[in-house]
Specification:
By secondary structure, the protein is mainly alpha-helical. The chain has a domain of 209 residues: Up-down Bundle (Vanadium-containing Chloroperoxidase, domain 1), CATH 1.20.144. The chain is 55% helix and 0% strand. It is built from eleven helices and no strands. Helix 7 packs antiparallel against helix 8. The chain is globular and about 135 Å long.
Length: 308
Amino acid sequence: MSFPKSTEEGRTRPLTAATRRDLVRRAAVPVALLWVGIVATGLLITGPLDGLPAEVGVNEALEERRTPVMDTLTSIWSNIGATAFIIGACVLAVAVLWWRTRQWRRAFVPAIAISLQSTVFVTSAAVVGRERPDVEHLDEAPPTSGFPSGHVGASTAFYLTIALLASRIRSAALRWSVITVVLAVPFLVALARLYRGMHHLSDVVVGALNGVACALLAWRYLHAERAQDESPGPAPASPREERAGDGAPARGDQGALPGSSPEAPSAGPRASVAGASVEDASVVVPPAEASPEAAATPARLPRRRPSS
């Protein structure tokens, strides 16, 4: 997964007012349209289509092929999509994503997907009110009706968002291993719900479509073009940058001619070039260094004149 390089990079503020408005704008209208489509499909099945009686044959065929081993396996698969398990896994995923990325927008993607899916599922199931298949139920039926499947919808929404987030894992082997495993879970949950007599085939299909739509809406929210409410904001300008922005010369540039580079300050008092005066009498100007040729020539002593 791609992580920030520093503590400041990617740091976001959680759920500000602008963030909530952005979430409503990007999710409310699409979810409303999704809800209308699911309810219309459910009422069509329970009304004019007379409950699709041919679907019962799928549940009856699975009931005839039940075995103790498959009963145990499907019980595990079904519980993976149960409400308690999905909520616990979602809380853990949000905590881990926030810990590793420090990005609230990314960390809340699974929670957004689950919340949207749950809202559509509970309200549409109450309106449609479809009965569950007329076979032996291996699980206790929840208080909601059979259409659409809440287990399949929740598992699809959650595990699909995990697969999308896992696409940022840098290691190719680990990335594809995680994606393959999490995408297989919704199919196992769907098979388990059919095998255990809890849903019709159309319940499972529409539940999966509900989960996919909500996961994509949450993923779209993550990749929103404008997220100004979460940006850390520019760093305050330094006093030197402020003076430069106001047109005033920065420190060290006072008195510089236009177009010329600022000169470095002098290290001390300077001697007059012409030798006429010295700015500081206490400063002794060092003599010029002798050339190598002069150093190699021995000094000649003055010749003494003979005394007369």
